[in-house]
Amino acid sequence: MWTNSETRAAARWLLLIHQLPAKPAYARVKIWRRLKGLGAVTVKNSVYALPANAETQEDFAWLVREIAELGGEAFVCDAQLVDGLRDGEVQALFDAARDEDYAEISAAARELASKHTGADLATQVARLRKQLDEVVAIDFFGADGREPAGGLVSGLEAGLHEEGDTVSATETKTPTDPLKNRVWVTRQGVQIDRIASAWLIRRFIDAAARFKFVPGTGYAPQPGELRFDMFEGEFTHRGDRCTFEVLLGKSGLDDPALAAIGEIIHDIDLKDGKYGREEAAGIRSLIAGIASSYNDDTQRLERGAVLLDDLYSSFTGKQGGKQGSK
Fold first, then answer.
1. For the whole model, what pTM was predicted?
2. Does the N-terminal peptide bond of residue 24 adopt cis geometry, omega within 30 degrees of 0?
3. Domains along the chain with CATH numbers
């Protein structure tokens, strides 16, 4: 069964309101760097926001003291948004900022992957991992760029330890029994890779699958749960493969139609044009339409499943019938 996503309560925010003197000039740069390091976003001139919790409150408290030492003034408010700006709009600011960070990491990872060798490659990969971990620490809502960036860095690390070939050689031999009758957990606000992966799970891997939608950060899996398209999940991006492709390999499904769908999902999700699938633009638009029409994750999966059933039928030449799970 599809399980409804959790109701989202009104968010609480910490707002730092501050003013700095014109001199010394370095003070503004210093405070801006500190705010960036904390993951804060601008909601208005000199007003910065963080999600309200004990850790962020302490971070802002130290920053208030630092601003005062530089000759400025600052105070912190614990607030709920009432009018003029919605919680979702503020969250989008955080996600956009983190996606920029992840895009830089992904670009650096792809550049390193093209080098293949080099005396300092391990050092550069370790530096990139540290950079990724720092961004993840301030990714409060699980931005979409996290999984692709994490997969690319993990792929580099696997290559350094000569694990890539071993993983690829054994993936198709992984038994599917442990994947049956499970609770499959993913992030709220499902989009293309999660929608397609859920369809793949239900249709071809685990006919009795139950889906659970959780916040993008801070979730501790329960016994028997399998996470997909989540940071550190059992099934998520690996190297330059999206979650759908990883699931396809792990489950041992040898189906040209599913492989073709995987290429489309890859091109939409990773936006790297690796396969150049001409169907990607149309499927992207249809999935975007589903996401904009339905806020509920269960409905998104249901509507997406209809679309993917039709797409699968078009590749197999089968009309009207549905192939059961294997």
1. 0.67
2. yes
3. 13-79 (3.30.70.240), 87-162 (no CATH), 174-316 (no CATH)
